[in-house]
Specification:
Belongs to the OXA1/ALB3/YidC family. Type 2 subfamily. It is a multi-pass membrane protein. Its main location: membrane. It is a single chain. The chain is mainly α. 76% of the residues lie in helices and 1% in strands. The N terminus is likely disordered.
């Protein structure tokens, strides 16, 4: 299960990168052609919002990107917090049924036929179902599907909004790659990854280490290949992710752990795994077996004398 969650997160990041790189059609000049649902109904409105803030409030394009990113993140924040909450509840419940799952996994290792494997897998499903635990660990696709188009709209708005390429932000040209923003984006997501490991078991930290490195590296790669306006979007998004992770991992998690512990105390996990049959002979059975053996030996001796 941990390997699957790890694969799911990694494939999600790769999918996001591919989605961001190919969902808006561009012409030979590198500018959007204006075709497609994503551009017309997501990117263009986001771009218009940035232009509106610049034109009506006399803001810098950099500040407009910062404000729009924060507004969008705040709107999506409840979805992210709800997803994290469900995931943590499922994780805590999974710890309570871990002894049963360990027994089944041992049976899977020892299974020599397909029937035995199928029986063990079916038993594992029963354990999850009877204890109201999701085999996915609370990871839902809907929040990701909702957030991805919005994040991509922000990404492309920061990249293609007219005027951004000629604007400066704290002396940095938003139309050219900026190593400063690349480094800041990488640091922000490294910190976010570190915060996400606070308060979790050491065993789980080991499984997360690779993704804690891969995620910032991918952000750095995308930022390095993009104009500073896009890298600024990643920087603000990374800082906001740090805040969101702090809320979920530092503030909410202790409460959720206490809540689940109290719930498990009132309603202990249902014992679904079939107990392993003890085939060790009892003292009485041992005596009877010895008596039979002794009688068998005497009878054999008599037959030989005859």
């Amino acid at each position: 299960m941990k390997k699957f969650n790890k694969w799911l997160l990694g494939s999600g990041l790769i999918t996001l990168m591919l989605f961001l790189s190919g969902c808006v059609k561009t012409g030979s000049d590198g500018q959007p052609t204006g075709e497609g649902f994503v551009y017309n109904y997501l990117v263009q409105p986001m771009s218009n919002m940035i232009t509106y803030l610049v034109d009506n409030f006399n803001w810098n394009y950099g500040w407009a990107i910062v404000v729009i990113t924060i507004i969008v993140r705040l709107i999506i924040l409840p979805i992210g917090l709800n997803q994290s909450r469900k995931s943590m509840i499922q994780t805590e419940k999974m710890q309570s049924i871990k002894p049963q799952i360990d027994v089944i996994q041992e049976r899977l290792k020892q299974a020599t036929t397909r029937e035995e494997q199928a029986e063990a897998q079916a038993e594992m499903q029963r354990v999850y179902k009877e204890n109201n635990v999701s085999m996915m660990g609370g990871i839902g696709c809907l929040p990701l599907l909702i957030q991805m188009p919005i994040f991509s709209a922000l990404f492309f708005a920061a990249r293609y909004t007219e005027g951004i390429s000629e604007a400066d932000f704290f002396g940095i040209n938003l139309g050219q790659p900026s190593i400063v923003f690349v480094v800041l984006a990488g640091i922000a997501y490294l910190i976010q990854g570190y915060i996400s490991t606070i308060g979790i078991p050491e065993e789980q930290k080991k499984t997360m280490k690779s993704m804690l490195i891969v995620s910032p590296l991918m952000i750095v790669f995308m930022s390095f290949q993009s104009p500073a306006g896009v890298a600024l979007y990643w920087v603000v998004g990374g800082i906001f992710s740090c805040i969101q992770t702090f809320i979920t991992n530092i503030l909410l998690k202790p409460r959720i752990k206490a809540q689940v512990a109290e719930e498990m105390k009132k309603n202990p996990p249902k014992q679904v795994v079939t107990p392993i049959k003890d085939v060790t002979p009892t003292a009485k059975e041992t005596i009877l077996h010895e008596d039979k053996s002794a009688k068998g030996g005497r009878n054999a001796g008599k037959q030989q004398r005859k």
